[in-house]
Design brief:
Keywords: GTP-binding, Nucleotide-binding. The chain contains 14 helices and five strands. It is mainly alpha-helical and 407 residues long. The chain folds into three domains: 58 residues, no CATH class; 167 residues, P-loop containing nucleotide triphosphate hydrolases (Rossmann fold, 3-Layer(aba) Sandwich); 156 residues, Four Helix Bundle (Hemerythrin (Met), subunit A) (Up-down Bundle).
């Protein structure tokens, strides 16, 4: 036990029981597991690799290393790689019980930082965001990040901390962590822009701050978290009590289950039409959005396509006015007589019947497609799925006929 306490080692969740004492092997295992999950050509996956490190020289911290935003897909990455990574990041940083470590290189414009932009979306007040500025040693000669680190430029409630990591050359040259930390410390103590704040810079200080702030954040969020868990526990205990006397063949339970599924179908259908569903289709328009497009784009387009002969219309108006006067003299007037106006308008409105009927067909078809998508959740019960789809589709077609009759 004493040997384990003083020995640094790591464990992976996917390799239970195996202790890694060589951290080069840890790096290799991460690469192997990444390739196993995502392939060997730069694919991505939201499945996390869980790694726990035990050491008497580190503080207690739980970190989630999220990928940086990729703008252009490479290798086997999908065309929407940027959106996929963004969604993955938002999935984690949106949680109120999570602190956000926004890492930005010092040799880029802070105003264009993807990390700070995403953090601001979910934490507009900056209550959960800690800024980390890297690559301070790579800034152009004569420039520095003093204003940023002093929290004067784009200030954050929790401020910024600067670090200097190993370069790729250092990693390839097997420069160890202790030597890297000494070099980092020397950099801050010797740099004229940072020496006055050297005690508040560097990786060891970042570890200390993260440990303190994470502990405080857990203490602040724990009461609400505990209350939520107790509420869920009471709900589960109530369900357990209900199912203690559960009889699968009980007709009342079958009826209740059937009603719940039908109600859920109704809710899903309504959400797809209103656009408030849990899943958003990014590939094509569907549901209410497509119906909206039919009304506001397709129908006007059909109207514009209609042929209109102004000369012919003027002749029809003239004939209509003369015909309602008969043998009487047609006197000049400011307004078209009512009978002539009504006859001409009715004839023009009839021309709208074609585009209207076409729009009705398109709307009804989209409603039926929406019904089919909603019944997918009932696929476990094929007959219920089939009957639900048949009944709702029959009702929609009935309404379609009534609508066409009105047209």
């Amino acid at each position: 036990l004493l040997l384990l306490f003083f020995t640094e080692y790591a464990e992976f969740l996917h390799c239970k029981g195996r202790k890694f004492t060589d951290f080069d092997e840890v790096r290799q295992e991460i690469e192997v597991e990444t390739d196993r999950i995502t392939g060997v050509n730069k694919g991505i996956s939201s499945i996390p690799i869980n790694l726990r490190i035990y050491s008497p020289h580190v503080l207690s911290l739980t970190l989630i290393d999220l990928p940086g935003i990729t703008k252009v897909p490479v290798g086997d990455q999908p065309p929407d790689i940027e959106q996929q990574i963004r969604d993955m990041i938002m999935q984690f940083i949106s949680r109120e019980n999570c602190l956000i470590l926004a890492v930005t290189p010092a040799n880029t414009d802070l105003a264009n930082s993807d990390a700070l932009k995403l953090a601001k979306e979910v934490d507009p007040q900056g209550l959960r965001t800690i800024g980390v500025i890297t690559k301070l040693d790579l800034m152009d000669e004569g420039t520095d990040a003093r204003e940023i680190l002093e929290n004067k430029l784009l200030p954050l409630r929790r401020g910024y901390i600067g670090v200097v990591n190993r370069s790729q050359k250092d990693i390839d040259g097997k420069k160890d962590i202790k030597a890297a930390l000494l070099a980092e410390r020397k950099f801050f103590l010797s740099h004229p822009a940072y020496r006055h704040m050297a005690d508040r810079m560097g990786t060891p200080y970042l570890q200390k701050v993260l440990n303190q702030q994470l502990t405080n954040h857990i203490r602040d969020t724990l009461p609400a978290f505990r209350s939520k868990l107790q509420s869920q526990l009471l709900s589960i205990e109530h369900e357990v009590e209900v199912y203690k006397n559960f009889r699968p063949e009980d007709p009342t339970r079958k009826t209740k289950a059937l009603l719940q599924m039908v109600q859920q179908f109704s809710v899903d259908f309504e959400k797809r039409i209103e656009g408030s569903g849990d899943q958003v289709d990014t590939l094509e328009l569907s549901g209410g959005a497509k119906i909206n497009r039919i009304f506001h784009e397709r129908f006007p387009f059909e109207l514009v396509k209609m042929e209109f002969n102004e000369k012919e219309l003027r002749r029809e108006i003239s004939y209509a006015i003369k015909n309602i006067h008969g043998i009487r003299q047609v006197l000049p007037c400011l307004f078209t007589p009512d009978m002539a106006f009504e006859a001409i308008v009715k004839k023009q409105i009839v021309k709208l019947k074609g585009p209207c009927l076409k729009s009705v067909d398109l709307v009804m078809q989209e409603l039926i497609n929406t019904v089919k998508k909603c019944t997918k959740k009932l696929a476990t019960y094929p007959r219920l799925c089939e009957e639900t789809e048949r009944i709702v589709a029959s009702y929609i077609r009935e309404r379609e006929e009534k609508t066409k009759d009105q047209v």
